[in-house]
Amino acid sequence: MVLLRAAALALAAASVVSAQSTMQTCSPSSKCPADSPCCSSYGNCGTGAYCLGGCDPKSSFNLQSCMPAPTCKSGDFAMDSMSDISPNTAYLGDASKANWVSSGSPAVYQNQAMLLTMAPNTVGTLLSSTHYMWYGSVSADVTTSQGQGVVTAFILMSDVKDEIDFEWVGVDLEHAQSNYYFQGITNYQNGQNLSVSNTAQNKHNYGINWTPDQVEWTIDGNVMRTLKKSDTYNDTSKNYHYPQSPARVQFSLWPAGLPQNGKGTIEWAGGLVNWDSPYMENGYYYAIIDNVKIDCYDPPSGANVKGSGAYEYTSVAGTQDTVEITNDNTILASFQANGNNQQYNPNAKPSGTSSSSATGSSASAKPTSNNDNTVPGMVGAGSYSNSAQESSGGSVNTDGSTSSGSSGSSSGSSGSSGSSGSSGSSGSGGFSQGTTSSSGQNDGSRVVAGSLVALVAFFAAAMMI
Fold first, then answer.
1. Biased composition, Low complexity: where in the chain (predicted)?
2. Contacts 24+ apart (CB under 8 A), 19-26
3. What is residue 351's predicted lDDT score, i.e. its pLDDT?
4. Cβ distance 439 to 445 under 8 Å?
5. What's the predicted TM-score (pTM) here?
6. Which domain holds residue 276?
7. What is the distance between the alpha carbons of residues 245 and 214, in angstroms, rounded to a whole number?
C-alpha cells in the first residue's frame, strides 16, 4: 500500500541521516557507480551481498553488476533444522550449500518446524530461498502471529519487484490477504481478502500456483482466488502488469504498527505493536513455518535457454522476454566482489604463500566491519558478529535482506480490524509464549535486539523503495 511505503521513506529519511552519509542511494534514474555497482532492494549501492538476492538490475551500474540467480529447485523442506539456513552475513551465492538465507532470528521449534521471531526493538525475521522460481507451485504450513501491528507474510518476490503475496494482519485472524504487484507498481484493486479459520490457533496450508497464464492462491488445497494474466493488461503502458520474472520464496514476521509509521499504515496493521502483549510472554512474537513444498515448472514457451543453472536479464525492462537461463557463475569470491568483478578477494592468500603468512580464503566469507557497504543493513547497525547463527538461531546485529521484504509491500485491500481474541497458544504443536523454556537449540530463547538503523533499512527494503 502506498501509505506503507511512504511511511518507510519518511522513517528512513528522518532516522538514518548519519548512516546515509556513507551510503549512496540508487534508482532507475540514478544508477550506482562502478565502485559500488549493486543496488539493493533498500535502494542503496554496495558490493558483496548487495549483488545477490534482491539486487535490482534496473538501478545497478549495469546489467552485469547483479550476480546471476540460481535456478529453481524442486523439493520438500521440513524447516526443522538450522543446517539448511545461512545467515545473510555468510552467504555468497552458493545455493548448493544452503536452501535458505536469513536475516533476524529464525529458531527451530522442537525439531519439527521453524519459528520466525520478533522481539522488542527488532524488525522481526525474514527467510528467503537461495534458489529462484520462474513459474511453479509453492506451499507451506503456516501458523501466523497475532496482535495489533504484527504482520506475517509468505510471498514470491523478484529482483525487479514482481510479487505474489499472502499476508496476515495480527488483529484479523479470519482472513489471509492476497495481493500481487508488477514491478512494484501499486494498484489498489490488486488485493483481495480470503476467508480462513483462526490463523494463529490453527495451522493451515497455503499455496501459490504460478504459471505464465495465471496465479492461484490456495488454502488447505482449495483454490480461493485466481488471477488471469489476460485480465492484467494495462492500456497506458501497453503491457501486462502480471508477475513474470524469477522470484524468491520468502517468509517473514515484521512490525507494521510502529509509531514512526503513518496513520494509514498503523490503522491497516490494527494499531501500534504492543511490546508488553501476552502474546509475547516468552520474549517475542512468533510465527511457525513448516512443510514447505516447491515444484518448479518448465520455462515459458519461447524462453531464451542457454543453460540450466542461472537466471539473468538481457534488458532493464525486466519482463519475461528479457530473462535468459545460462550456466554462468552465481558465487562471489568475497563480500568486496560484484558481478563485474566476481573473483575479487582482498583477503585471498597470495599464490605460493603458506596459511601462516596469509589471511586465507576463509576471510572472504566475512563482511567488513567498517563502513563498506557489503551486506545490506550493516552500515550503522553495529559491529559484525561472527557467531551470527548460534544454535538457537540467534541474529546478527543487522536485519538485512529484500522483499517486499518481508513482504512489506502489503495489500491495501484489507483494512479489516477486529480483535484477535485468541490465546497465546499455537495450534500447530502446543507452543506457548508463556511457557518457561530451557536452554537449547529448539527453544529459540536467545533473540538479539536489532538497531534502529537496521530497522529502517529493513523497512526501506520491505516497502520496495
1. 348-369, 391-423, 433-443
2. 19/379, 19/380, 19/381, 19/453, 22/371, 22/373, 22/379, 22/380, 23/373, 23/379, 26/56, 26/59, 26/60
3. 63
4. yes
5. 0.79
6. 2-462
7. 14
Rounded CA separation 9/190 (Å): 22
Write down the catalytic residue from 163, 174, 267, 324: 163
To the query of whether residue 312 is one of the catalytic residues in this protein, the response is no
pLDDT band of residue 211 (cuts 50, 70, 90) is very high
**Do 156 and 250 meet the contact criterion of CB atoms below 8 Å apart?**
yes
Residue 325 corresponds to which cell in the numbers above? Answer: 537461463
| CATH number of the domain residue 451 falls in | 2.60.120.200
The three grid cell numbers given for residue 312, joined into one nine-digit string:
539473468
Average pLDDT value over all residues in the chain = 80
Instruction: Report the amino acid identity of residue 324.
Output: E
Bridge partners of residue 219, in order along the sequence: 206, 222
Q: Rounded CA gap, 89 and 12, in Å?
A: 22
- The whole-number pLDDT of residue 265 equals 81
Side-chain half-sphere of 64: how many Cα atoms within 13 Å?
Answer: 7
Counted domains in the chain: 1
Per-residue pLDDT band at 359 (split at 50, 70, 90): very low
From 167, 174, 281, 390, the catalytic residue: 167
